[in-house]
Every structure is written in structure tokens, then in C-alpha cells.
Amino acid sequence: MPELPEVEALAQHIREHGVGRTVARVDVASLSVLKTAAPPWTALHGRTLTAAGRHGKFLDLDCDGLHLVVHLARAGWLRWAETLSVAPPRPGGKGPLALRVHLGPPGSGPGFDLTEAGTKKGLAVWIVEDPAEVPGIAALGPDALAMTRDEFAAVLAGHTERLKTALTTQKIMAGVGNAYSDEILHLARLSPYATAGKLTDEAVDRLYESMRTILSGAVDRSVGQHAATLKGEKRSGLRVHGRTGMPCPVCGDTVREVSFADKAFQYCATCQTGGKPLADRRLSRLLK
């Protein structure tokens, strides 16, 4: 799933290559991806792309005051091309293409496709006059990279959720997902099952610095990459996430996994839980 660093890199790529260009045409291959009916997507035609930004994990493209807002969900992606096919995609097709934006004359100008792999569809697009009209943006907590240490501590205070849950709940803080939360917790040497609101001041310090280090480093590595290479860049920078069964790069212990119905997270018992494996499948206590 694209998280804060990848969405920031996509926004930067569009700022460099798309801002100032005119939206010549928008092709919709999957009507289900559109979460707003008015204004219609055709209202974007003829408008200039004036800015590209980010709200948490939402991409925001400002077209002369009308915003094309995108949430890539778990398997969505933005694919930039210097030339796109002039032929409109067939609506309701079975391929991954959901929506295409031509930033110049179709067939001779650049643009991008929004695609989604797999059968579980979550990619979503809104066309709004104000990004706050998007319910997910209106409900976002403070941005993970915009908080001071004291603001971060205040956000965690009082929450009884597991630390893993608190980091990835967008209403608590925005931008961190499953992969980078694993990396943040590993660097901070904290258990994913620790209670967010019960951390010591020293643990909050470690967690805050780890979050900034992991996210800022990922942004630095990602910005400037072509959209096609961002996924590979993300994977190459991960130390525990997605590395179940491999040695921890810090201590050499085996990276372990806790799996749920639709997702999993990884951690190092030696670095994070005092050597005790975490209970799997929705159990919240350490195994005795």
C-alpha cells in the first residue's frame, strides 16, 4: 500500500512534470472508482493543473480550483507516461486501468493512468471544490511528519490502542501504514502490542525520532524516483516488514510475523519484545 513517502514522491513527480499543463481529457474505465457525481469528471477538461499535494495518504491535484483527489488504497497505483493512447479505454473492461488523465493532446502529450491490481477494489477518486469535502481527509489526524515531539506525545496520550494500531489509524495520525509502522517500531525497539497511551517519556522520544527518521529517509529516497521504480525502492529500504523468516539486520534473530485475516505485520522479538514471541491471530498478550 502506498504510504506517506510514496504519495509525497508521486506529488513531487507531478509538480515537476505535470503542473502547468492542461487537462485535455479524462477517460473513466471504471465508474465505481468515482466517489462523487458532481462536478462530473468532464468539468476537469480544459483546466490547468496548478498544484499537486498530499493529505496523509491522499493525493490532491488542484486543477484551477477543482481538485482531483485520489486514494490509492492497497493495490492502486499511478503510472506516468510521456504519451498515452489516444483511444479511450473501454468502460467496464477487466484490466487494471480505472482512470486516465491526458495532460495535453491525447496521443501526443503526457499524462497518467490510475490502475488497481487484484479483485479487491479500494482505489477511490473524488472531484471536489475543497479537499475537506472528502470524508477521509476531513477525518484525518495530524500529519506524521508535521508534528512536534510534544504534539506527538499529546496525540498518543490517553489512547488505549496497541501502538501498532495507533500508528496506522489515520484519524489519530495521518500518513503511516502497515509497512512503515513495522519499520518505525523496530527502530524504536518497541513492541507493536505496547499500549500507546502508557509509554514512558523516553519511549515516546525514541518512537518520535524513529518515525521521523524512517519517514524522512523514505521520502528522501523516493522523491526524484520515477513512479515505476517507487515500489521497488520502498521494498529495498525495509528491514523487517515483509522479511518473515529472514535474519534481523540488527541482532540476527529471525524476523517473526503476526497474521490476521487480511494482513500481517513483522517484528523482531529480540529487538522489540524482550525475546518473547507475540501471540498470533488477534491475541494481544505475549506468550508465556
TrEMBL record:
Family annotation (SUPFAM superfamilies): Glucocorticoid receptor-like (DNA-binding domain), N-terminal domain of MutM-like DNA repair proteins, S13-like H2TH domain
TM segment ranges: none
Keyword Secreted: no
Alphabetically ordered keywords of this record: DNA damage, DNA repair, DNA-binding, Endonuclease, Glycosidase, Hydrolase, Lyase, Metal-binding, Multifunctional enzyme, Nuclease, Zinc, Zinc-finger
Pfam families for the chain: Fapy_DNA_glyco, H2TH, zf-FPG_IleRS
Cofactor field: Zn(2+)
SMART domains the UniProt entry points to: Fapy_DNA_glyco, H2TH
InterPro entries: FPG_cat (IPR012319), FPG_N (IPR035937), H2TH_FPG (IPR015886), Ribosomal_uS13-like_H2TH (IPR010979), Znf_DNA_glyclase/AP_lyase (IPR000214), Znf_FPG/IleRS (IPR010663)
PANTHER family referenced in this protein's UniProt entry, alphabetically: FORMAMIDOPYRIMIDINE-DNA GLYCOSYLASE
Protein name: Endonuclease VIII
High-level lineage: Bacteria, Bacillati, Actinomycetota, Actinomycetes, Pseudonocardiales
